[in-house]
Design brief:
The structure is a single chain. The protein is globular, with a radius of gyration of 12 Å. The protein contains two helices and four strands; from the N terminus they run βαββαβ. It starts with a strand and ends in a 12-residue tail after the last strand. Strands 1-3-2-4 form a four-stranded antiparallel sheet. By secondary structure, the chain is an alpha+beta fold.
C-alpha cells in the first residue's frame, strides 16, 4: 500500500485498525491531516514491526478505533 489519503479517508477505510502513515502532513497541533499509508492491521505489533522493516524517515502511527473507557493514553 502506498496511497496518499486524508485522515478522514484513513478512518473510513481502516476502521478500528493501526495505520502506519509515512510523511504525514500535520496541522499546527500536529494532528495528522493526510499522508501516505504504508501498512495497516488490527495488530499493533505487526504495524510496529513493519515500521522497523521499512524505516521511514518521518511517520505517524494512527489508531482509527475507539479507545475503551477503562484505558489510559500516555503521550
Amino acid at each position: 500500500m502506498n496511497e496518499v489519503l486524508t485522515a478522514a479517508e484513513i478512518g473510513e477505510r481502516f476502521e478500528s485498525e493501526w495505520v502506519l502513515v509515512e510523511e504525514p502532513e500535520t496541522d499546527e497541533a500536529l494532528n495528522v491531516q493526510r499522508g501516505r499509508v504504508r501498512w495497516h492491521s488490527t495488530d499493533r505489533d505487526e504495524v510496529y514491526r513493519k515500521a522497523v522493516e521499512l524505516r521511514p524517515h518521518r511517520f505517524a502511527m494512527l489508531y482509527t478505533g475507539r479507545i475503551p473507557e477503562d484505558s489510559a493514553v500516555v503521550l
